[in-house]
Amino acid sequence: MPESKSKFLIPAVGAAVVVAGSIAAYTYFKGSSAGSLDALGSAKVVPSTALMATYITTDSQAWAKLQQFGTPEAQKLVAKGLEDFKKQMFSDSNVSYEKDIKPWAGSVMIAVLPPNPVKPAQLKVPSGAPNLPTNLQQEPNILIVVGIKDKLSALNFANKLKSQKGVKFQESDYQGEKIIKTTENGKPTYSAVLNNSHLILAPEKQAVEKAIDTFKGQSSFASKEGASSILNKGVDVKNSLAQIYVPDYAGMVQQLAAGSPQAKQLPPQTLTQLKQIKSVVAGIGVDDSGVRVKAIANLDPQLNKFQYQSSPGNIVGQFPTDTFALVSGNGISRSWEALVEQSKDYPEMKQALEQARGQLKIANLDLDKDIFGWMNGEFAFGAIPSNQGVLASVGFGGALVFDTSDRKTAEATLTKLDTLAKTQQINVANRNIGGKDVTEWQIPKQGALLAHGWLDQDTVFIALGGPIADAVSDRKNPSLDTSDAFKAVTGSLQKPNGGYFYLDMDKTKTVPPINSFISSNADIITILGSIRGFGITSTSPDKSTSELEMLLALKPNTAK
């Protein structure tokens, strides 16, 4: 949110709650119970036109779970950052978040409404201009719903703010409800209290009016097609901090794209692709492993052309334990076939594929058959540290490992590549590594630039750098899947799955290019020192559902 709008919360909160003031309100507040503070309750006052909504809990127990992670230095850094934020937010008042806001503010829902149409009178076009501007940047239309869990504390806070200097309040009536216009430093914001249980805040008056219309009976986000089910179910994460709801994914992208300054009408092919995803719900929570994010996409099975297949996970065992980053999956050939099929509806994509096919034909290679056709099994790409030979300057190399049922085609492709390398004056030679025959592309005085060979009857590898070929071929050291780091980052992710993205932060930050980048910033070093790694995986239990899970694995708090 722009800085000009970031401070509208405090004076607007006070102004809105003042509406329910007076002695009568005091008596009512003292004897009444709090309103519905769950996601569904908040969504009932959000207009059905909302493109998406994020529900953030203020449950102190959920947020306190974060305190079990991080080094003492990282804990102090985060605490200082939070304190600085509070001071900046309340710098122009004597408001304290802990004393004045925390006691009464319940959970928060932030909804994104469609941008308001720009009227010609707002364009301020110079006289004599031949045409109106076509690229108009429209700011997101934000509506914030704050649940009031303690009405007495809210009233006390409102009365305190009523005497603040430099803040102007102006009341107006809409549909029998009071809207407060709060002006601070020339920036107006609008707010209202609905049913003494929800505080509505927005930088635009129209957004508050639409929320009142919803409260009075117009259709709400809670009743919107596709929203009700995801609001009720949400995503199952422990100690949920936030839930994100997108009931109409294609519609959201269309409307947000239309509001961008470089807006262009989306082609029908793109809309078809977007409509594969009906709705999305995501949750962010904290458990014993770290911060976990889960997202569930509801798909249209008639439009979904991707054929999901779970990955056995055996390919990870082909990498050494010091591998610091890895991407794995299954069935590149199927994905390629789906891409080729989709390109028929995209002239630009189809042209690019034809150009790629033509360029490879010069080297006597068939893109579909020789490159992707035999990649029909599990695969992985891993980054492995090394400071030897051609890798001395970068500090790491990489290895691609493929399982295939078509060894004959794979061998023919590698032979063609070897022949091509020889025409470029590269020395192609064979070497035995750990009992395996490996072919290397050698550069004088620097060793092997690239190497390839077979780990078993069905598994081939291509290594960037001779030392990486040694690490993959000669399996004297433990494999990656047995390492404590890999288990900590991926062990709690859902299984079976379609593969992993894995990152070991401790090893990654020692790689020379990355180390030189972060070494000059002590705060970054401190934060990264609390992160163990990052893991992502996905599953698809059926053709109408796709699930994504991410884990930011954190180190336990070592403070005593």
> Which percent range fits the helix content?
25-40%
Whole-number average pLDDT?
85
Oligomer: single chain
The secondary structure category is: alpha+beta
Q: What kind of sheet is the major sheet?
A: 20 strands, antiparallel
Roughly how many Å is the radius of gyration? 29 Å
| Low-confidence segments | 1-6, 20-29, 31-35, 119-137
Form type:
elongated
Number of strands: 20
Note the main attributes of this structure.
560 residues; 20-stranded antiparallel sheet; elongated; disordered N terminus
Could you walk me through the main structural features you see in this protein, from its secondary elements to its overall organization?
- With 560 residues, the chain is an alpha+beta fold.
- Helix content is 34%, strand content 28%.
- It is built from 21 helices and 20 strands.
- It has a 20-stranded antiparallel β-sheet, with helices on both faces.
- Strand 9 and strand 10 (290-299) form a beta hairpin.
- Helix 2 (9-18) crosses helix 8.
- The two termini are 38 Å apart.
Q: What is shown here, in short?
A:
By secondary structure, the protein is an alpha+beta fold.
Secondary-structure topology with pairs:
Elements: H1 3-6, H2 9-18, H3 23-31, H4 39-43, E1 52-56, H5 60-64, H6 72-89, H7 97-101, E2 105-113, E3 141-148, H8 151-162, E4 167-174, E5 177-184, E6 187-194, E7 198-202, H9 205-215, H10 227-233, E8 240-246, H11 249-258, H12 268-274, E9 277-287, E10 290-299, E11 325-330, H13 332-343, H14 347-362, H15 367-373, E12 378-385, E13 396-403, H16 407-423, E14 427-433, E15 436-443, E16 447-454, E17 459-464, H17 466-473, H18 484-490, E18 500-504, H19 505-508, H20 512-518, H21 522-528, E19 531-542, E20 545-554
Antiparallel strand pairs: 1-2, 1-8, 2-3, 3-7, 4-5, 5-6, 6-7, 8-9, 9-10, 10-20, 11-12, 11-18, 12-13, 13-17, 14-15, 15-16, 16-17, 18-19, 19-20
Helix pairs in contact: 2-8, 15-16
